[in-house]
Amino acid sequence: MPRILEGDLVDRGGRYSIVASRFNDFITARLLDGALDALRRHGVPDAAITVVWVPGAFELPIVCRRLVASGNYDSVIALGAVIRGSTAHFDYVAGEAAKGVAAAGGGNVPVIFGVLTTDTIEQAVERAGSKMGNKGGEAAVTAIEMVNLLREVG
User: What range defines the domain where residue 122 resides?
Assistant: First the structure.
């Protein structure tokens, strides 16, 4: 039987930062609530959580990189909502936010992508705590699992 490694969902003293976009805050505030609730339910004390607000999703990557580089966090969670409009702006912002957040991890600190990219406001609402669950909470649980997995891997 092969050795199987996987992270569990019980906090073991992790330190977490959540970077949330103020743009579309009627959605991102709900994502943040979901992330905080999930972290707390899995045993993370408030003292181990730092929340940083940025203007928009485009600004998430630079702050994620800075938080990773600080060495103060075991995981960084990026939360935002980019909702398609009638211009190409959506494509630029969503694409750059995704690439930048992915690149911010680049080392031993998992950076979790909790940015909604939806066609409509209704889709965003569905993913921020209604019938599709709360993607902020899912991102937080992923962060806990990744912290534990990386500790297991060594």
Answer: 16-147
**DSSP structural state of residue 46:** G
pLDDT class of 79 with cuts at 50, 70, 90:
very high
What pTM did the predictor assign? Answer: 0.94
The residue among 21, 11, 15, 79 whose CA lies nearest residue 53 is: 21
Q: What are the catalytic residues?
A: 89
Longest dimension (CA), the chain: 54
The first and second tokens of residue 133, run together, are 């669950």
Whether 154 is in a domain gets the answer no
Which of 86, 69, 91, 84 shows the shortest CA–CA distance to 123?
A: 84
CA 144, 72, 67, 106 torsion: positive or negative? negative
Let me know the angle formed at the C-alpha of 52 by 46 and 58, rounded to the nearest 5 degrees: 145
- Please report, for the domain that includes residue 111, its CATH number: 3.40.50.960
Q: What backbone phi and psi angles, to 5 degrees, belong to 152? A: -65, -45
First to last CA, the chain: 21
Domain presence at residue 141: yes
Domain count, the chain: 1
